[in-house]
Write a structure and sequence with these properties.
The protein is an alpha+beta fold. The chain contains nine helices and seven strands, in the order βααββαααααβαβαββ. Helix 8 links the parallel strand 4 and strand 5.
């Protein structure tokens, strides 16, 4: 019988498993392609949490193997400032030096206007982001391997919600495509806003704690 345990990454092997799952589920629950995208994609999405807030990453282990994870933080505005200073700057230098190759992700990251063009606060509007800052300051990202999703996501989510409640955090938010919306509704989120980004809709989901 399989045993599911929720805890935190403890070793570099755990963090590598988190990075692998990020890439194996990064295209709407399916693997991103091609494989040469994986190192930069994983560093972009997982690196800041490993470097700045490892204690706010939760993993689900089935018989010792990491099958899902949640990265997040209790206060997004401060995290974004620290991420820009301590992670994005070093990522920029390493990308300019060619460490990550010449994939589409790297080219987009290095484009001088890409960050402003893609910034969600400009897409959704400053009023939405002010509301998130005041009422839903925490955020998270969650991914679970295909075939392991029946109940695993809820278990990881509950662990994070319990930790946020102990810290006195008022609420949290996340951004997602249309596919995961039913799951987030089942665990207590509702949709605050929704926009079509061309490749599909993106929703702001929020939950009080």
């Amino acid at each position: 019988m399989s045993e599911l345990v929720i805890d935190h990454p403890r070793t570099e092997e755990d963090w590598q498993a988190v990075r692998d799952i990020c890439c194996e589920t990064g295209a709407g629950g399916k693997p991103i392609e091609p494989k040469d995208r994986w190192p930069f994609f994983a560093e972009y999405w997982i690196g800041p949490y490993q470097k700045l807030l490892p204690q706010w990453t939760f993993v689900a282990r089935e018989n010792g193997k990491v099958v899902g994870y949640l990265t997040g933080c209790p206060e997004t505005s401060g995290f974004n400032r620290r991420r820009a200073l301590y992670h994005r700057s070093s990522l920029l230098v390493s990308a300019l030096r060619g460490k990550w190759g010449n994939t589409e992700d790297v080219r987009r990251f290095l484009h001088p206007f890409e960050g402003a063009r893609r910034a969600l606060q400009f897409r959704f509007g400053l009023k939405v982001f002010d509301l998130l800052r005041r009422r839903y300051p925490a955020h998270l990202h969650i991914n679970v391997l295909e075939g392991k999703r029946g109940g695993t996501g809820r278990r990881i989510m509950n662990a994070c919600l319990g930790a946020l409640d102990q810290q006195g955090v008022s609420g949290l938010h996340l951004f997602c495509g249309e596919g995961p919306v039913p799951f987030y509704r089942r665990v207590g989120f509702h949709r605050l806003a929704r926009l079509d980004f061309g490749k599909g809709p993106v929703s702001v989901m929020v939950r009080r704690i």
